[in-house]
Design goal:
This protein is an alpha/beta fold. It has 2 domains: 2-151, OB fold (Dihydrolipoamide Acetyltransferase, E2P) (Beta Barrel); 158-300, Response regulator (Rossmann fold, 3-Layer(aba) Sandwich), CATH 3.40.50. 33% of the residues lie in helices and 31% in strands. The chain has 10 helices and 16 strands. It has a 6-stranded mixed sheet with strand order 8-1-2-11-10-9. A 5-stranded mixed sheet has the order 3-6-7-5-4. The chain has a 5-stranded parallel sheet with strand order 13-12-14-15-16, with helices on both faces. The longest helix is centred in the C-terminal third of the chain and has 18 residues, at 283-300.
């Protein structure tokens, strides 16, 4: 029992990189941060997004550069040439975030998070506030920011003709019930929208793993499929599935992890739990995985 408690507590902790923009401190998951570079210079490209200032080359790889200060409307005394470049990776997309400075790596507990303060347009891109050292550290919705600032990503994600083709193949599916858990409001809504455009109509979204667990285990709600993000601080997707696998009612429930995290130990853990892993933002692979599970369930008459 004590060992289980220790494992559960460890799953509620993760490491973040702290960095500065103006007078504010922000955080990003260590798993998404590849390296920190001095100013690299850049080449401007035509764009309608001021925060997307151009591209740079790092070890023969071309990276888009997004100035987070411009995107968030933060005044900063740090000139462009003295900024740091945080090289981050989401799915197979690498880019550079320009920041004033990088502080350190810090461990964060789920109990440190506060989502109740998420109010107002100014906090649109903030998922959580981390209370630490008598200051508020802001955890941003980075995948949503990338979609907003990198048009090529958004254009690649949503091809209406392709989504309509999925719907023509399966029709309107009303008796296949899907639970979607993601703490990013934008990505949660987009996942639901893509599934609906592909023909799946019975979709229930929740904001984190805790809500999903309550629905499935405490309230005994029936769903044919769970689609979950991995990185949800209050209860991450893998810990959620481990809990479901221990209950007879949900131990065989099909699960798709829809996440931008590619860390090997997490993927190995997902494989051991018999989970399908789909990398964000590949919504087509997501829909195709859902369709396969739907056809398998229909064939085996599991609902």
């Amino acid at each position: 029992m004590e060992e289980k408690k220790t494992v559960a507590a460890a799953s509620r902790k993760w490491e973040v990189v702290l960095f500065r923009l103006g007078i504010d401190t922000f955080a990003i998951n260590v798993n998404k941060t590849k390296e920190i570079l001095r100013w690299t210079g850049y080449r401007p490209v035509p764009t309608k997004t001021p925060a997307f200032i151009g591209i740079t080359t790092v070890r023969e790889a071309t990276l888009p550069l997004i100035d987070l200060r411009i995107f968030l409307g933060i005044d900063s005394p740090v000139p462009l040439e003295q900024t740091k470049v945080m090289v981050v990776e989401f799915n197979d997309i690498k880019l550079g975030f320009l920041v004033d400075g990088v502080e350190r790596i810090q461990q964060v507990n789920a109990e440190d998070l506060d989502a109740s303060k998420m109010r107002g347009v100014s906090l649109k891109w903030v998922l959580y506030i981390i209370k630490r050292d008598e200051r508020n550290i802001l955890l941003l919705d980075y995948e949503a920011i990338i979609q907003e600032t990198a048009p090529a990503v958004a254009e690649h994600m949503f091809d209406q003709n392709k989504l309509s083709g999925y719907q023509q193949e399966i029709g309107h599916v009303e008796d296949f019930h899907i639970l979607v858990a993601d703490d990013s409001p934008l990505l949660r809504q987009q996942t639901c929208d893509v599934l609906k455009q592909s023909g799946f109509t019975s979709i229930y979204p929740v904001k984190d793993g805790v809500e999903a667990r309550k629905l499935l285990l405490d309230q005994g709600e029936n769903f044919d499929l769970l689609i979950s993000d991995i990185e949800m601080p209050l209860l991450d997707g893998l810990s959620l599935v481990e809990t479901l696998r221990q209950d007879s009612k949900t131990q065989d429930m099909p699960v798709i992890l829809f996440s931008s995290i590619m860390v090997k130990d997490l993927l190995d853990r997902a494989e051991s739990l018999k989970i399908i892993h789909v990398l964000k933002p590949d919504v087509y692979k997501l829909v195709e995985s859902v369709m396969k599970i739907y056809h398998d369930c229909k064939k085996n008459r599991r609902y």
